[in-house]
Amino acid sequence: MVCVTILGLLTSTLVVSSSGNPLHLTGLHSWLNGRIVGGEETTIERFPFQGSFRMYGYHRCGAVIIKAHVATTAGHCVDDQDTWYLSVKAGVTEWEDEGMELKVKDYIAHEDYSIRTLESDIALLFLEGGFEFSNTIQPIYLASYGEELHPSTKAYVSGWGTMKENGSALSEKLRFAAVTIWDQEECEDAYEGINNVTSTMICAGEPQGGVDPCEGDSGGPLIVGNKLFGTVSWGLGCARPGKPSVYVKISALRKWIDSKLLAANAN
């Protein structure tokens, strides 16, 4: 049986993908999410756009601050949840630190999002009030529509996800790792017969494995320079050789993001 890890959650649920293979949803125990595989500890000052998307006050997934009152996360992290117990915390290196926590007043998942295919696995979180920007809380620039990364480009991913596949211990401190952007066709080949890698996805990892986001990192940032190029979505296990992590491709969905932000401002 082929299991694809949804990199945000932590119990076991099976959903059949478009290719007929079971997708292994490692999730729903939001209090049991952990660390980046093969990474190292860092501080929020280096990744001030990193947020913790929470359910009942416990870390569930990563989030990325893009405006004072808007963050992004993975579509599968919100998946029809009521907003009254959802929040985003920012400004913390250790996820249990006080920081600044705002309630989610509304969210919009992409209309094409599907738990079967993980197509367009993104959601915008609209927050009550707004974050006060400082050296520990800052928004990040988004990749422009159609902006591409060359294969072999070094990128960085951060979060509090597990340090090993099927891990369950929380990382007290934020971690990050350097990963390599994959050629799109090579990534498609790596997941042939497992799940479709589409034009709204971008892949990053190391051919030999050993470095990867893992359970609890979904929705977190993939950055190059000072721009957000991806958000963590799915992969086959964690840090396996020849199986990179798959991210939402921000440049492919930039028009959708802008349209939803414009509509929200109009209302």
TrEMBL record:
Which part of the chain is the Peptidase S1 domain?
36-262
This entry's Gene Ontology molecular function terms read: serine-type endopeptidase activity
Asked if the record carries the keyword Protease, the reply is yes
Q: Please name the GO terms of the biological process aspect recorded for this protein, alphabetically.
A: proteolysis
Span of the signal peptide = 1-20
Establish whether keyword Disulfide bond is in the entry: yes
Q: Which Gene3D superfamilies match?
A: Trypsin-like serine proteases (2.40.10.10)
Alphabetically list the UniProt keywords.
Answer: Disulfide bond, Hydrolase, Protease, Serine protease, Signal
Protein name per UniProt: Peptidase S1 domain-containing protein
Please tell me the species this chain comes from: Hermetia illucens (Black soldier fly)
